Amino acid sequence: MTSTTDTFPAEAGWDTAPDLIEGAKTLELTPAGANLAYWLKAMPATLRGHISGHAPEVTIPDYMREEGPLREAITQELSFRAIAEEKATRALGYLVPIAPTVDTMEFYATQVIDEARHSMVFRNHLVELGVPREELWQRIHEIAAKDRAEVLDPLEEYALKVMRDQRDFLGGVLILTIIVEGVLAPAAELSERKWRPLNPAAADIERGAGIDEIRHLTVGAAAAREYLEVHPEERERAVALIREGMGLWDVLPGHAMVHRREVIFQKGLEQHADVVGDYEIWPGRRLVDTTPEERQAQAEKWTEEMQESRLKYMGLEEALA
């Protein structure tokens, strides 16, 4: 999919890219089609005017800097995301030297930069919200200490065992595409939608990261599919690894973490319902009428839909059984 002028890929454009869920489910991009040359062409379309995550003219409402549930909800969310993206950046470096083709190597090298940028813009927005820059990392780790220890550290340990210690390219790609980003991406889509009327700057930051994640999820699925076409004997192992990774989410307190944030967000939503007005978080449903449980259930539904779509594309749908 390209723009009408063919000057940049439409799926990378700020105003032309689909939303994260739709793009991750329907777009097809291969490592050869999303190599370094593609990335250099795509990045100006995504980042022009948004190097800091949002355009300079997008203002942050004063109530987002004041103590209260909205500020608490977003600082918890962004602190978690900043650490998650930093861990992803470091882990992805282990896929670059073991990539089976030059195009695949180039793609994962660009993803390293993408994830580093995501961590940067999430951190920078915390500064915009009033966290002193000189205390930034200390505050981030204080705010997200419990979630880092209970969710991110076990995921990192699992991923590094496969990517660093076993040097397993296929396993690393499946962990990133299905187990990690495949679960966290729908929560990011929810974040963009719910913050849009309350903090447009935060929503734009999520929008930019989401455009990148579409590429990561679709190319990751294509890389796994291409690998399995060359090594069909590894298909059974791939199914087992996916089931193992999904089982890890069953024991991690990720659901409780998201629910806690949504409950805090709900309090702020009720305080600022006049700002939100009739804004619809999805067609036919006003944000002010939603509950924490409903929003979380929708994100989990998106997760299931994305995983099913990508696994079918890779020929690994039996992992869902």
Describe this structure in words.
68% of the residues lie in helices and 2% in strands. It is built from twelve helices and two strands; from the N terminus they run αααααααααααββα. It has helices at residues 20-26, 36-47, 69-92, 102-128, 136-143, 145-165, 169-195, 200-230, 235-251, 254-271, 273-276, 292-314, and strands at 280-282, 285-286. A two-stranded antiparallel ribbon has the order 1-2. A hairpin with a 2-residue loop joins strand 1 (280-282) and strand 2 (285-286). Helix 3 (69-92) runs parallel beside helix 6.
Task: Summarize the SSE layout with pairings.
Elements: H1 20-26, H2 36-47, H3 69-92, H4 102-128, H5 136-143, H6 145-165, H7 169-195, H8 200-230, H9 235-251, H10 254-271, H11 273-276, E1 280-282, E2 285-286, H12 292-314
Antiparallel strand pairs: 1-2
